């Protein structure tokens, strides 16, 4: 360095300054480039996240829709599965029923004697039983061996129910679909009115009755139904038992559909 002339020293310093400036410019441009790429990458990432969320939402909604549709199909087309009791369970149930009969005697109440039973004019043409544990109905016709006894036990249970339930909630005219998806137990008095209309004095509306498991009726009808075939709603032959399933039990039982308050 000492041997360099003044001119050489100036040239050398100028070269160093130029190299420094070039390095500074390159660094600046490189920093700007990296920053722009980073921003673009973030934007792309955020866009992808949004798109992924939208796709996930579409997928979730699709799954929910499929689930809802499946639930709707399931509630309408559940397979008929009969809850068959074992021989031991049948024998134990029979013993309980025989004890029920012996303890109770023959003092069965008649439902048509009830002050709330003005709607009940005649014996049903068919009785249907819907268990809360099964997706189907059992049908009892007037020529069945146990029809008469089952009817008197049902009437007796109905009579006590109206004494305890002044609002007649147990007689709410639920739709067949509601019965199928409900865990409640139902008895239905079904009438063949033929060409009769509601204004005819001989017309008898169907009666729908909900009752508890902890009853003599439940034990009896469970036992009797073991020898019955479980049938679907299509095999009933009626779209609905009640013409208006939006009414309360009290209104359905106490008033005519064409003369309700």
Characterization of the model:
The chain has 261 residues and is of the alpha+beta class. Helices cover 49% and strands 8% of the residues. The chain is built from six helices and four strands; from the N terminus they run H-H-E-E-H-H-E-E-H-H. Strands 2-1-3-4 form a four-stranded antiparallel β-sheet, with helices on one face. A hairpin with a 7-residue loop joins strand 1 and strand 2. The longest helix has 71 residues. The protein is elongated and about 140 Å long. The N and C termini lie far apart (119 Å).
Which features would summarize this protein structure in a list?
261 residues, alpha+beta, 6 helices
Strand content: 5-15%
Secondary structure: number of strands: 4
* Whole-number mean pLDDT: 80
Shape: elongated
Task: Write the topology of this structure.
Elements lengths: L5 H71 L10 H18 L21 E5 L7 E4 L5 H18 L11 H6 L3 E6 L16 E5 L4 H10 L23 H6 L7
Antiparallel strand pairs: 1-2, 1-3, 3-4
Helix pairs in contact: 2-5, 3-5
Quick synopsis:
With 261 residues, this protein is an alpha+beta fold.
